[in-house]
Specification:
This is Sulfatase-modifying factor enzyme-like domain-containing protein. The protein is globular and about 40 Å long. The chain has a 5-stranded mixed β-sheet, sandwiched between helices. With 127 residues, the chain is an alpha+beta fold. The protein contains 3 helices and 5 strands. It has one domain.
């Protein structure tokens, strides 16, 4: 059974992979989880969220009661989108540009911004 995933991109754009999304195969590629901090972090996430789906990038998806929908527990982070952009050609690179007049430096743990609609849909399908 394929579960539906809905991602919150940045803070205000809701992206869904539902019936109107292009027919794509789910991303079945596995990414090795290195020993050390990354594997310890995944183990901690699994214990903290036993009813959640945790993908190979460590993104935690919680089910929405009464539906087949799952939401990620945080916005799509820079590091999540970066993995997609590095694995695919033709992705618009606006997301790499620094935010003008920002009072902080964006890190891999901040929500990704400056992603166009088509790339956001492609990211969702890639998951």
């Amino acid at each position: 059974m394929m579960k539906k995933l809905i991602l919150l991109i940045a803070v205000t754009t809701l992206v869904g992979c539902g019936k109107k999304a292009p027919q794509t195969q789910p991303n079945t590629k596995t990414r090795p989880v290195p020993a050390g901090p990354a594997s310890a972090e995944l183990s901690t996430l699994e214990k903290k969220h036993p009813d959640a789906f945790i993908n190979s990038m460590g993104m935690v998806f919680r089910p929405v009661p009464g539906t087949e929908v799952q939401f990620c527990i945080w916005e799509t982070r820079v590091k999540d989108y970066k993995a997609y952009a590095e694995a695919n050609t033709g992705v618009d690179d606006n997301w790499k540009r620094p935010i003008r007049n920002s009072p902080f430096t964006q890190t891999d743990m901040h929500p990704v911004v400056m992603v166009n609609w088509n790339d956001a849909q492609a990211f969702c399908a890639w998951l």
